[in-house]
């Protein structure tokens, strides 16, 4: 119970001050006139003023409130390496035990996890939010348990009490990390791009001159080379294919380093083709020849070389083949010296007539085996004696002609496996049939009968389910065979036409190994920390996918078929970093955020950022590795840290439970007192 004198004037303060002025003026006049009762007049005026001020005694019933000590525990990713989790636990137990011995003191614990995305350690944000929920007058101290690697120091709040830092880590900690900078978002295929890498040592690292760097593209077997430590390395890279190329760089984990989370880096570079170089070899004039040429010339990104044989085969005029051209056509340069410059070679109704020697055709076979692509659009000549199949190219073509040619109308169909193959998957949806029976595209009127080897894949069929479009892989390259020369009918819109442009676009991209057209692939489409894991396969089922987390733990996920040949699942990743996916056949890597997050850019514990704040409150920084600390109470403004101890400032906060107000004197008593003094002054002055 405490008491205090309060005033509650009966007049507005302006009038009250006016009355005070008049009383002072009257008292001054009495003194100037030397009236013997001037002091009685002054006391009477004072009594009247006191009555107007309405003094009262206020008594409060106070309940003391506990002092609050804020404990902010950093449990971000960098605090989960080494022995720091154990240090966190020991520090919390030490603080709880010490504060349990302090009277009228309670502990508020705030646990800080990883920031959203790659925000890093938002220690000051967590402290600001915690302080905003507590009365500032009760905060006796703030204790941070952290490695000091925070990323929001600019958001530090006003500190109402000493703020101490208990620092995790060991004096001999060291770490090694891989940094990739200057990585382009895209690169032109066939041209080198330069990446800048650097291997850095932090802390008490052992003396080492170099480490082995492993480089892997799309999860393939890595290439290993030694690189120096502490120096920028310019690394030239040439992308192997178009689309997204995932480059993974890794250095081995050394004995004693804090973590291997920053020993890997992933760079995703989109490979784009500067120009698509196509060689079109037309064997004879026919309606589809102009369609092929117009189709390829309509794309400004295509460099087309069109080799055309205009002399009909039935024309026998005795003119030597080498004299049919007005100028010498560079066949040797095209088919021997420059053949590897082409991305795709198309033979359109070509037949052997001695214009291209077997040596040239054998060179094309080698070109395919070494990674090239050949597309055959065949007509009746494919089943004849002059067929290109009966040349060195025959060993790589996916269809052996039976010499049968069907001249009747048919609607091309997508085979069962074609429904799952990315070249033809969903193609019929581009030309829906209003009757709902089969695709809604027009007929073709010629089909060359072929025998297909087991290793080839038939994705479209014609009359009596005979092969129409056949795909195959030969060595490092790819070949495709279309057993009809009448795809141009779709381009002309006959009977409604069909998706010729989309079919040929997909076919060309598959032959040039574009990743999005691979029939066996595993990839991830990230959205924040949500992964859409996609598996494309020609099989009817697929196995589970094992996801390896950045910290080495694994999660096994099952996929569901969402469309023919496409299996998917959505998975929320627990943290950012580098993830590896494997289903036993296909592998993939994906980096959510940077592969080495902001948390692992600097892993050696340091209080450099926090020291100015800590010192401004008279507090201190204590290494947890030095042992437990004791907690003492100190007066406000005094040093709050010393050897082996930290201090908190008791605040003496309280809560008022009840208030009672009693007037100092009743109004009639004030009036009686003032009247008595006035009468006394009159009597005193009347004796004069």
As a whole number of angstroms, the C-alpha radius of gyration is 45 Å
Broad shape: elongated
Content-based structural category: alpha/beta
For the record, give the distance between the C-alpha atoms at the N and C termini, rounded to a whole number: 52 Å
Helical amount: 10-25%
Could you give the order of strands across the largest sheet?
A: 16-15-17-18-24-23-22-20
Q: Give a count of the beta strands, DSSP E runs of length 2 or more.
A: 37
Q: What profile does the largest beta sheet have?
A: 8 strands, mixed
In round numbers, the mean pLDDT is 85
Beta-strand residue fraction? 25-35%
SS field, number of helical segments:
11
Residue stretches low in confidence (pLDDT < 50, at least 5 long) are none
Topology:
Layout: E1 2-7, H1 13-32, H2 38-53, E2 55-64, E3 67-74, H3 84-100, E4 105-112, H4 123-132, E5 139-146, E6 163-167, E7 174-181, E8 186-188, E9 193-203, E10 210-217, E11 223-228, E12 232-237, E13 243-250, E14 264-272, E15 276-282, H5 287-297, E16 302-308, H6 331-337, E17 344-348, H7 358-369, E18 373-377, E19 400-406, E20 413-414, E21 447-451, E22 457-461, E23 467-474, E24 477-482, H8 488-491, H9 500-511, E25 521-527, E26 530-536, E27 545-548, E28 554-557, E29 560-563, E30 566-572, E31 577-582, E32 587-592, H10 611-616, E33 621-623, E34 630-633, E35 641-642, E36 645-648, E37 654-663, H11 667-686
Parallel strand pairs: 3-4, 3-5, 5-6, 6-33, 8-14, 15-16, 15-17, 17-18, 18-24, 34-36
Antiparallel strand pairs: 1-2, 2-37, 7-9, 9-12, 10-11, 10-13, 13-14, 19-21, 20-22, 22-23, 23-24, 25-26, 26-30, 27-28, 27-31, 29-30, 31-32, 35-36
Helix pairs in contact: 1-2, 2-11
């Amino acid at each position: 119970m405490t008491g205090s004198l309060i005033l509650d004037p009966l007049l507005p303060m302006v009038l009250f001050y006016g009355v005070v002025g008049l009383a002072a003026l009257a008292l001054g006049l009495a003194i100037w006139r030397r009236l013997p009762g001037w002091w009685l007049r002054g006391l009477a005026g004072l009594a009247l003023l006191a009555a107007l001020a309405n003094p009262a005694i206020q008594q409060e019933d106070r309940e003391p409130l506990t002092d609050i000590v804020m404990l902010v525990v950093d449990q971000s990713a960098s605090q989960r390496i080494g022995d720091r989790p154990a240090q966190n636990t020991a520090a919390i137990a030490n603080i709880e035990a010490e504060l349990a011995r302090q009277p009228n003191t309670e502990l508020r614990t705030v646990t800080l996890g990883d920031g959203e995305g790659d925000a890093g350690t938002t220690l000051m944000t967590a402290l600001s939010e915690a302080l905003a929920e507590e009365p500032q007058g009760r905060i006796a101290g703030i204790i941070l348990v952290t490695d000091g690697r925070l990323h929001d120091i600019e958001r530090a709040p006003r500190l109402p009490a000493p703020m101490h830092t208990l620092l995790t880590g060991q004096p001999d900690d060291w770490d090694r990390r891989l940094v990739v900078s200057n990585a382009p978002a895209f690169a032109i295929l066939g041209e080198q791009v330069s990446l800048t890498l650097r291997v850095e040592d932090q802390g008490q690292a052992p003396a080492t001159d170099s480490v082995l760097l492993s480089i892997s593209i799309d999860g393939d077997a890595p290439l290993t080379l030694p690189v120096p430590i502490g120096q920028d390395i310019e690394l030239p890279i040439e992308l192997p294919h178009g689309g997204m190329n995932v480059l993974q760089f890794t250095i081995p984990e050394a004995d004693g380093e804090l973590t291997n989370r920053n020993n890997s880096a992933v760079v995703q570079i989109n490979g784009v083709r500067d120009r698509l170089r196509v060689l079109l070899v037309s064997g004879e004039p026919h309606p589809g020849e102009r369609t092929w040429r117009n189709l390829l010339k309509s794309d400004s990104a295509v460099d087309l070389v069109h080799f055309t044989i205009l002399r009909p085969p039935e024309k026998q005029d005795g003119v030597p083949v080498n004299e049919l051209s007005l100028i010498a056509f560079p066949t040797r340069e095209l088919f021997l010296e420059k053949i590897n410059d082409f991305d795709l070679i198309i033979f359109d109704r070509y037949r052997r007539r001695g214009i291209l020697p077997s040596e040239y055709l054998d060179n094309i076979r080698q070109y395919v085996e070494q990674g090239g692509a050949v597309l055959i659009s065949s007509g009746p000549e494919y089943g004849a004696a002059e067929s290109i199949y009966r040349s060195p190219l025959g060993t790589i073509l996916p269809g052996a002609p039976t010499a049968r040619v069907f001249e009747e109308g048919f609607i091309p169909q997508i085979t069962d496996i074609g429904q799952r193959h990315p070249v033809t998957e969903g193609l019929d949806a581009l030309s829906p049939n209003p009757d709902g029976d089969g695709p809604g595209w027009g007929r073709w009127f010629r089909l060359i009968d072929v025998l297909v080897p087991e290793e080839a894949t038939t994705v479209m069929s014609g009359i009596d389910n005979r092969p129409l479009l056949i795909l195959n892989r030969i060595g490092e390259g790819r070949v495709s065979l279309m057993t009809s020369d009448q795809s141009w009918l779709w381009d002309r819109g006959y009977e409604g036409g069909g998706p010729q442009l989309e079919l040929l676009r997909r076919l060309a991209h598959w032959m040039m190994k574009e990743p999005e057209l691979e029939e066996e692939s595993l990839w991830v489409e990230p959205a924040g920390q949500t992964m859409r894991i996609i598996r494309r396969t020609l099989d009817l089922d697929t196995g589970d996918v094992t996801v390896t987390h950045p910290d080495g733990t694994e999660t096994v996920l099952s996929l569901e078929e969402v469309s023919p040949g496409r299996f998917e699942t959505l998975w929320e990743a627990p943290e950012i970093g580098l993830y590896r996916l494997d289903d036993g056949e296909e592998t993939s890597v994906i980096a959510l955020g940077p592969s080495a997050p902001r948390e692992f850019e600097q892993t050696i514990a340091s209080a450099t950022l926090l020291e100015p704040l800590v010192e401004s409150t008279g507090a201190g920084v204590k290494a947890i590795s030095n042992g437990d600390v004791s907690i003492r109470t100190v007066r406000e403004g005094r040093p709050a840290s010393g050897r082996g101890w930290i201090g908190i400032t008791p605040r003496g906060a309280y809560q008022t439970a009840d208030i009672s107000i009693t007037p100092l004197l009743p109004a009639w008593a004030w009036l009686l007192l003032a009247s008595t003094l006035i009468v006394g002054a009159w009597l005193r002055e009347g004796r004069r």
